Amino acid sequence: MTAHARPASSTLVGEAAIRARPNVLSMNYVDKVFGRDVVALKDMNLDVNEGDFISLLGPSGCGKSTALRLIADLIHPTKGQIKWANPRAANDLSVVFQEPALMPWATVEQNVYLPFRLSGKPLSAVKSDIDEVLALVGLEKFHGAYPRELSGGMKMRVSIARAMVTYPKLILMDEPFAALDEITRFKLNNDLLALKDKINCTVIFVTHSVFESVFLSDRIVVMAARPGRVIDELYVDEAYPRTETFRTSAEYAAHCRRASDTLKHAMELGQ
User: Fold this and answer.
1) Are residues 176 and 269 in the same domain?
2) Are 21 and 10 in contact (CB under 8 A)?
3) Would you give the distance in Å from CA 237 to the centre of its chain?
4) Tell me, what's the pLDDT at 271?
5) Does the residue 72 lie in any domain?
């Protein structure tokens, strides 16, 4: 499991450095209509760059999850286009859903092995990769455990390990920590940033939480509903790694206030 070289721009902090990162993909004036008249997204524009941690923040019904499904090519735009900067390979993208979606009959190791099995690689050839990623999520002693034997937080760790074991360039995460208690959620936020740093990927993360979006992200894309659309983008130009010291800092509080005010405006627009 060989880490990718880190782009020089990722060591810089600030909005200008974030904007200067090479492009991964762009959503250009994307609409998504379900049925005859349910407008999930209207004129969605989003540039995703290498190394970004983007949170899509907004009220229910603003199209956050729809945007992820469009990027994952699970559904297709009604209008507009999603353009990748380079041809996308099969292992360039992984998705983590709100529910861990583990195979209940398979062990932790077998669940994490799934992406390799689907691509025809034998377990013996990738066992060291699986061992490494399970150690990174703190489950190195649970290779043989079954999902029924795991807590909710541990199941989500398995899901994240499965998404990251192939070192994808882009990971899409649809409210993966929403159902977890606050202590577990904070711990998984920390672990997620450590994993992102380890494999040097780009993340698009759907959340309803202002606090979570500020802690994790360098870009917060705020969306409004009816129709779903982007109304603002906020930059959290604070250095990584982010620790508990950042959570209790004046800078964190200021970013949270700004994101909260923008989210409130988004909710008023959707009424």
Assistant:
1) yes
2) yes
3) 18
4) 66
5) yes
Domain end position, chosen among 151, 167, 183:
167
Same-domain status, 69 and 193: yes
Domain shared by 218 and 174, yes or no: yes
Residue 64 contacts residue 17 (beta carbons within 8 Å) = no
For residue 58, pLDDT over 80 is answered with yes
Separation CA 249–CA 269 (nearest Å): 31
C-alpha closest to that of 67 among 18, 75, 231: 75
CA 71 to chain centre: 12
| Whole-angstrom distance, CA of residue 176 vs CA of residue 159 | 9
Each residue's pLDDT tens digit, 73-98 = 999 999 999 999 988 776 789 999 88
Q: At what angle do helices 152-164 and 182-199 cross, to 10 degrees?
A: 10
Residues paired with residue 96 on neighbouring β-strands, in sequence order: 173
Taking the C-alpha atoms of residue 31 and residue 157, their distance in angstroms, rounded to an integer, is 33
Q: Tell me which residue has tokens 């800078």.
A: 251
Angle between helices 123-136 and 152-164 (to 10 degrees): 130
The model scores a pTM over 0.70: yes
Q: Is 220 exposed, middle or buried (0-12, 13-18, 19+ CB in 10 A)?
A: buried
Domain range spanning residue 144? 102-167
Are 118 and 184 in a shared domain? no
